[in-house]
Amino acid sequence: MKRVLYALSVMAIALMIESCVAVKSSSKELSGLGKVYHNTTAQYNGYFNANEILEATMLTMDQQYKDNYTQILAVYPYMGIDNPKAAAPELDEAVKKVTKVAALHPKSDWVDDCYLLAGKAHFLKQDFETAEQTLRYLTAEYSPEKARLKKAVQRNASGRTSTSSRPPALDADGNVLSAKEKAKVRKKLKKDKEKQTKKVAQARKKYNADVARARKQGRPLPPKPEILNKTKTATPSTTSTTKTPAQIQKEKARKEAEESKREEEFLKKKPAYYEGVLWLGRTLIERDNEDLAFRSLTQLESDKNTPDKVRAELAPLLAHFYIQKKQYEEAIKPLEEAVELADNPKSKARYNFILAQLHQRASRWNEAYAGFEKVASSSVNYEMQFNARLNMAQNSWLSGKGSAESATAQLERMLKDQKNQEYRDRIYYALANVALKNNDRPTAIKYLTLSVRSGGSNPAQVTESYYTLAQLYFDEEKFIPTKNYLDSTLTVMDKKDDRLKTATVLRDNLVDIAKNLSIIQVQDSLLLLSALSDADLKKRAAKMKKDEDEKRIRDLEKANVPSNNGPTLGAPTARPLLTAGGQQAELFWAYEDKELKQGKRDFQRSWGERTLEDNWRRSQKQGGNNANETASTQEETPAAAAATANPNNADDANDVATYLGPVPRSDAERRSAEIKLIDAMYKLGVLYYDKLENFPKTVSILEGLNNRFGRHNFELNSWYYLYLAHTKLNQTEKAKVYYDKIVVGYPTSTFARVLQDPNYAAEFLNEERKVNVYYDEAYAAFKSGKYQEAFQMASNSKVRFGAENKLASRFALLAALCTGNIQGKEAYVSALNEVIARYPNSEEQKRAKEILRLLGASGAQLPGDDERTIDESQRFRPDENAIHFILVVFESNTNLDAAKAKISDYNRNYHKLDKVTITNLFLGDDEKTRKLLVILRRFENKAAAMKYYDGVMKNRNEFMVSGLEYQLLPISMDNYRSVLRDKTVDGYGEFFEANYLK
């Protein structure tokens, strides 16, 4: 028996070896056993393990994503995570496994699945370019047309024909029909079919008329006739309806064959082509190739051979496509289909939630309520159920199921539920939405403020609350709180948020507006206070101080923490309070022992050991003296003498300054406040016009300025902006008033010339262009080493274009640089100092200071040795399509081996397939100042280099040794050559920030 088993084992091994060897010849077909071996090994070895990795990674990515319920939910959560590169090591391993499977088993039926899985892995890494290449190869090489052609070729090669003969026509007894008999049968069948078609048409016409009549009269619809319910009309046959035993046997054999074929189709492996087309469509959507994506998906939808599984995945993808394009109405139908086809309860609940959100967006409150109700009753996570109930409460009164008061009451009950404590910010936000729908803006602002103060852990909700507050204040033209709330919004807003750019632009436009509004408010208040007597000012300050103290006491009482006014700097005697539940109450910061000790040490470090007494800050006190201090022998000032005579005066003066600010007390101080006010009002009017295009506000502020202060330094400019604003508002008569004022009052001004001569503006701009061209020519002479010529041109610019031309500072710096080359270092330093003195707060002043610093460091550096001192933009040039490297810049004493090892590990984990190479060099001749560069090469273009850069920014701890300082700089090949030529990376960091990070 053992010999038999041994022989069988040897034969099996031999057959397996033969089947494996057969793969080596691409022209030969595998044997049956060989096919089974390769299919089994491919499926249950490499492919199975890779698929397990892929599914586990998708699950992990899903769990990492935090849903933002204030926006339309993502159809695919795993696509919204911040750092998809974190999953790159696992996904690269999956790609490696299926690549090996495709190489070892090229004739197995699982090669197409291997390409599909690789495409999915690249897609999940958000390496969409590689994913597209992989999936395009799959859909091209493994299309059904190509598969049929391949089978036909194989059949022809094996001597079989691809055509099949049609069986002869038989009568009821199994006899072969003659040609004449067949013609008669066909004619009879055609006639019967025409009759049947006519009957169906008449029945349908009558039924449609009955339905229309019933709808018009409000009656129930009539039942559908039986003839219309039949999918196929029965065609009478000329043959006998009684079946012979031969016919029964033949029918049975036919049914058995069909059943066998269905079983075979069920067991047969489905091709990966259709799912490949689906994922290719997803990839094209992410690459913004929407037209081609839509064609692929609609073709898949219309193909009758598309498997049910793929069709079920197609519906949510179409919804995702429309939502991405913001075509929300078109997304509803595929979402409804997705709900019907979804087997997974979580997916079904998500699709229902998104569908309800779309209905809510379109103000279809009943449909929205019904959708959220389905989610609330489903078995999903509590957070989604909670948000569904939150939306139900908001939609209930809008759909006619209640009132605004009942919705508010329901939400307030949710506030009291302990399970919802971490969601209080969302409930307050929902209450604000109800108030807004009810046109109650003050209440909405109150709830939004409470939402922000609730301090929820969800940045998305904090973003919505801040942003909504900013919008409400902007609508009310309260620009200071608008700007402040936009600042807060931008600190928490997701960088992928579509509103980021809009919010940033608006915030930037409001920075100067808020600044000038604040100046106006402060100076107005100070001028009003300046009219009060000293006694009244002290009373106001005392009242404000008293109010503040009372508020502090109330806050302490609310916190249930007793006030401690004991005369000691030591630890307080009060014990920690316990709540009703026996838990220690949270202490006010001043009762924390650690804080008290730190405060005591800081006090003693500044003031020394002091006796605890009133007025301890004064050098002269009415009662007692400080034993640790030596009496002052300095002469007292009048203010000190007054404070000594009346010790409360100093405190009163301090209170006035603290609570009321620097109130003007003299005419000069009042005039200074007015000048600040005039300047701020004029700038604000211009900003309203230029930044916000708010022409009514421009008119209001500038007319207020002129009416209040009469003639001032900005009179002409204010008239010009008033003329422009009234023109924009189509107020031609008022515009004409300011036109006349400008032309009559300032006839030789630029504004008057522009208004009277439309060509003057073009001539003025042409003059500016001439200055630019002249400067470029002077700078070109400098670069060519013609320092005397460049110096002469820079000096003549004052004569040609005036001493105050717009490029005067640049001409001055250029002249200084030429001076250094012509006259030497001493004259160079003197010329640079003149630039610094004459052009404060200018870019040229900054550059002159930097050159002086370099001169002090090197002792002999001249401008011709370093062209960067004139214009860094001439040294580096942006080129998005050029080959890029990435520079990692260290100080020269860095542990190079450790740094390179860490970078290599990072590349192995996150960029295994990208083949990034690492080299290093030292840059600079001076050992003290030279830099160590690690060069990572190479990347196809700027986008590829920035993709690597972004990945490092999200995984910094894995990229570099802890505590090691470095710069990461993507750089084009030409700019890299400039760095090597100049032997320095100085200046490139600024270029990188300006051209790569904005």
Automatic annotation (TrEMBL):
Keywords: Signal, TPR repeat. The lineage of its organism: Bacteria, Pseudomonadati, Bacteroidota, Saprospiria, Saprospirales. It comes from Haliscomenobacter hydrossis (strain ATCC 27775 / DSM 1100 / LMG 10767 / O). Transmembrane segments: none annotated. Residues 231-246, 637-658 have a biased composition (Low complexity). It comes from the Bacteria. This is Uncharacterized protein. Residues 1-22 form the signal peptide. SUPFAM superfamilies: TPR-like. Residues 155-166, 621-636 have a biased composition (Polar residues). InterPro entries: TPR-like_helical_dom_sf, TPR_rpt.
